[in-house]
Specification:
The protein is of the alpha/beta class. The protein contains eleven helices and 16 strands. The strands form three sheets. Strands 3, 5, 6, 7, 8, 15 and 16 form a seven-stranded mixed beta sheet that branches. Strands 11-10-9-12-13-14 form a six-stranded parallel beta sheet, sandwiched between helices. Helix 11 links the parallel strand 15 and strand 16. The radius of gyration is 20 Å and the shape is globular.
Length: 329
């Protein structure tokens, strides 16, 4: 029997329970992993609350990220051996292939050997954030040297990952946050500029920073009224990639900015990357190279033991951290 995390109803972190279940042998195309660390994500919080793109079937497991060592291989899996240190790229179904547990089975295409020298904690904190940011900024927006990119809700793990990916290709990062409380920490994490949106005029500050041109790329998980403010700060021909809906308000559509600047506003999900083999291979190559060179360096805010999974999730929801929350086993 193996300890896993399950929930039997939607709710706050108190619905998460550590229970013992029988984990089957890996299917033909799966890798079985003995988990050493788990990365926590807001998508899992939304799933637990019944506010995600996927509905739970109770009792449900959950989780997108983990790192550990290979315990067993399905009979069609090649390229891995028992004992290999590996990490998990988020799958298309966290309930079918959950990561919150001591032993997990994951499709081989979603498993990677992580670079030597990368800790299990760092490996578990890597793939959701870097795949999400890479897919938006590099694969879709074609971010490059000389570009300005606005990264909103910048203290999240995906926000910090976007800083590092943007800097690795020579772009300038403009981070936004509500107040200046996190400004110093965001600069230390890699933002070239920080704008406190509750204290400053976003568009005016962006125009000042960009010499009146505006930002060509925006990477935003907030939505709602924020989209109109961001559109006002964008350059002609700019691209806004919306990867979340933290705002509960729909907000006005910025039609004059969209028309006047020929803007592209696109909804974006990490599943666009992981569902396509060719794109996923490009993501793996870019991210592994960055992890090896140090250009990509996962920022871990805090670690918790597995037994304190509820407390770890509460801390994630408090929005007090900058970077990733990791649970260790």
């Amino acid at each position: 029997m193996t300890r896993v995390v399950r929930f039997h109803e939607y709710g706050d972190p108190s619905v998460l329970r550590i229970e013992k279940v029988e984990v089957p042998a890996p299917a033909a195309d799966e890798v079985q992993i003995g988990v050493r660390a788990i990365g926590l994500n807001r998508a899992e919080v939304m799933f637990r609350k019944g506010a995600y793109l996927q509905d739970a079937v109770f009792p449900s497991q959950l989780g997108y990220e983990a790192a550990g060592t290979v315990k067993a291989l399905g009979n069609s899996v090649q390229g891995f051996a028992e004992g290999d240190a590996v990490s998990v790229i988020p799958t298309l179904d966290m309930a079918k292939w959950p990561t919150y547990g001591e032993v997990i089975n994951i499709p081989a295409r979603h498993v990677v050997k992580h670079p030597a020298g990368l800790s299990f904690e760092q490996a578990a904190a890597s793939w959701m954030q870097y795949v999400t940011a890479w897919g938006a900024l590099i694969e879709q927006a074609k971010l490059t040297t000389g570009d300005f990119v606005i990264v909103s809700a910048a203290s999240s793990s995906v926000g910090i990952a976007a800083f590092q990916i943007a800097r690795s290709v020579g772009a300038t990062v403009i981070a936004t946050t509500r107040t200046n409380a996190k400004a110093k920490a965001l600069r230390e994490a890699g933002a070239h500029h920080v704008i406190a949106t509750a204290e400053e005029d976003l568009a005016a500050r962006v125009m000042e920073i960009t010499g009146g041109k505006g930002a060509r790329v925006v990477f935003d998980p907030i939505g709602g009224p924020e989209i109109a403010r961001l559109a006002a700060a964008m350059a002609i021909g700019g691209v806004l990639l919306e990867y979340g809906a933290l705002s509960r308000d729909e907000g006005p559509f910025p039609q004059f900015a969209v028309l006047g600047k020929s803007l592209t506003l696109k909804g974006y999900l990490f599943t666009e990357i992981v569902s396509d083999d060719a794109i996923l291979d490009r993501a793996k190559a870019f991210i592994n190279e960055g992890l090896q060179s140090g250009a990509l360096n996962p920022l871990i805010s805090r670690t918790f033991p597995f037994e304190q999974l509820q407390e770890a999730t509460r801390f994630l929801e408090s929005n007090e951290q900058i970077g990733k929350i990791v649970v260790t086993l």
